[in-house]
Fold this sequence. Notes:
By secondary structure, the protein is an alpha+beta fold. It is 30% helix and 20% strand. The strands form 2 sheets. Strands 1-4 form a two-stranded antiparallel ribbon. A two-stranded antiparallel ribbon has the order 2-3. The longest helix is centred in the last third of the chain and has 14 residues, at 98-111. The radius of gyration is 15 Å and the shape is globular. This is PAR1 protein.
Amino acid sequence: MLSEMACEELPKEVCAFSVASSGKRCLLETEKAAEGGVEYQCRTSEVVVERMANYIETDQCVEACGVDRNSVGISSDAFFEPQFTAKLCSSQCYQNCSNIVDLFFNLAAGEGKISLQLTIL
């Protein structure tokens, strides 16, 4: 039997774009450290991923899709950068990295800010 994966137990280096055993997305957040600095913590979001659990995104997909594991939170602002949209819609990302594609397309749809028409490069 596979062990349960909780976001709070993941190191920050693999937190972003991971999905806990519960099916909820993991999210990198900042927290004030006792010494006054800033620490990064992996937290469980309320966003449930359909048909995916206990998953850590591959480095190949992170690179192919042009995302950064050190990003704190997730924002649709990246869609306004042509380079990001081109990488997200590239065949290397779109055809092989359904977790990342699902995350950003659901984010865009949920915020209602932008409407994307996919062009596979």
